[in-house]
Queue: 2 jobs
Job 1
Amino acid sequence: MIDVLNFLPNRVSNLISSYNLEELEEIRIRVNRPVILKLTSKEIVIDYNIKQEEILKILQFICDNSIYTYQNQICNRIYHN
């Protein structure tokens, strides 16, 4: 799970890493909304509203700065879930 934190902006990564991540199942990140950690037994709302620019940076980092290359996969995933 620690590897996932490398994809996040430092501020967000530092906030998340202050929690026990052994039960972490999901990190919910939405524009202008608090970051939510979904653990096995509970949810933790982190008092930090992530900005659109930060989400774009995360996506660019995950896609190795080539969002266009992954565009079809991203769209298919969004519409088929």
Note: The beta strands are 24-28, 34-39, 43-49.
Job 2
Amino acid sequence: MGMTTRSRFEVIVHTFVFDRGRMLLLRRANTGFLDGNYSLPGGHVEAGEEVATAAAREVAEEARIEVLEIEPCIVMPYGDGVDFLFEARRWRGTPEIGEPDRCDDLLWAKPDRLPEKTAPFIEKALELRRKGIWYHQFG
């Protein structure tokens, strides 16, 4: 006994990557969370890592593109954590699946024509981005 239970607070990053009016989406697979849904490149911030650095790292790992300039966009706290959404203002490379064990499809979608199965927060995030609202309590 004698163990204390610590609550865990998740810090997650996601990045909008746009090209000619379309946004990059990856379909989650084998992650245990929202599998089968399209989402933005993203993931957990590592201990001691700067949030924007984590966002750029996740884009490189998941989509194999290099973010040259990244800008904070939206902060969305939820029950047990917070999502930081960024926008890649400049990037280079050709997107491809970088983690086939966690992603089984990659596509470009128009923001007003998202795939049927898209992570629930994305539509809200796009609305907030459109309205210039940077903070929203989600869920």
Note: Residues 37 and 117 are 5 Å apart (CA to CA).
